[in-house]
Write a structure and sequence with these properties.
The chain is an alpha/beta fold. Helices cover 24% and strands 25% of the residues. The chain has eight helices and 15 strands. The strands form four sheets. A five-stranded parallel β-sheet has the order 6-14-7-8-9. It is globular.
């Protein structure tokens, strides 16, 4: 890392074997968008990346905590890609500020949709809309953009993936007492084992085989408590993991100042607004040909999300 910081700024990208004039737009500046831009630049294109957030990097800048992704290293990579002739425009939301149809009219010969999955899924339980109930990535974005939310003394995390662990360890660093509530056991937890171990070593508690059923507000209208129910594992579901089943009469209530939901992600479909004939799949990503990655709009491809 030290060598890269000291030496990479002085590295000049090699000239491509041929320069191409065709305009290419990339929606999203996360790992997929940056990788696509880098590959195109090597081949002589000068693509334009359109990023809705005020900073480039996607989840590397907005979702990953500082202790996992040093921002100076990320900036070095983005700066290098820009030196290759790639243009990065932040604060441009495709579907709101500009549409795919407008990009086509502006002369872009290809568009790569690399928006990723940044929208949290809901639990559909009472109290989910209360102030103080956050989506995992929403919370991480707030912190990473310097808008540190007041976490209070007790923070409850719902979920067992890496986003849940990132949110838990971030809230702990902000001074909160943190408990993760996961509806299965550690054996089924999708988070990386080293993240689980690190979180527990830092003081994060994990309550397994439990799930919330209701969030309740206090006198100020904000989240104040969470009612949970104990679970047991039944037969395997479609994912191959044993299905969690609620145990009747096992409900219990815990006090909490903040709840962070990290139970799953899907694509934000805003990018598709105004796009003619663009078909979306179940989780709002574009439906693509399995062989060519081409969307339902001819000549426009989505290489990755």
């Amino acid at each position: 890392m030290i060598w890269a910081i000291e030496n990479k700024p002085g590295i000049t990208p090699p000239a491509p074997p041929v320069e191409r004039s065709e305009k290419v737009a990339i929606i999203g500046s996360g790992p997929a968008g940056l990788a696509a831009a880098h590959t195109l630049a090597i081949r002589g294109y000068k693509p334009t990346i359109l990023e809705a957030a005020p900073v480039a990097g996607g989840m590397m800048a907005l979702g990953m905590p500082l202790y996992r992704m040093p921002r100076d290293m990320l900036k070095l990579d983005i700066d290098y890609i820009e030196k290759m002739g790639v243009t990065v425009k932040t604060g441009v939301s495709v579907g709101k500020d500009v549409t795919i149809e407008q990009l086509k009219a502006d002369g872009f010969k290809a568009i790569i949709i690399a928006t990723g999955v940044q929208q949290g899924t809901r639990m559909m339980i009472p109290g989910e809309e209360l102030p103080g109930v956050y989506q995992g990535l929403e919370f991480l974005k707030e912190v990473n953009l310097g808008r540190k939310p007041a976490v209070g003394k007790k923070v409850s995390i719902v979920g067992g993936g890496n986003t849940a662990l990132d949110a838990a360890r971030t809230a702990w660093r902000l001074g909160a007492e943190v408990t993760i509530y996961y509806r299965r056991t550690q054996a089924e937890m999708p988070a990386a084992e080293e993240e689980i171990i690190a979180a527990e070593e830092e003081g994060v508690k994990i309550d397994y085989l439990t799930a919330p059923v209701e969030f309740t507000a206090g006198p100020d209208g904000r989240i104040a408590s969470m009612k949970n129910i104990r679970m047991k594992l039944g037969e395997p579901d479609k994912s191959g993991r044993r299905r969690p089943e609620p145990q009747a009469g096992s409900e219990y209530t815990v006090a909490t100042d903040m709840v962070i939901l990290a139970i799953g992600l899907k694509a934000d479909p805003d990018y598709a607004k105004g796009a003619k004939n663009l078909k979306l799949e179940k989780w709002d990503g574009p439906a693509v040909d399995k062989e060519t990655a081409e969307t339902s709009i001819p000549m426009f491809s989505r290489r990755a999300t």
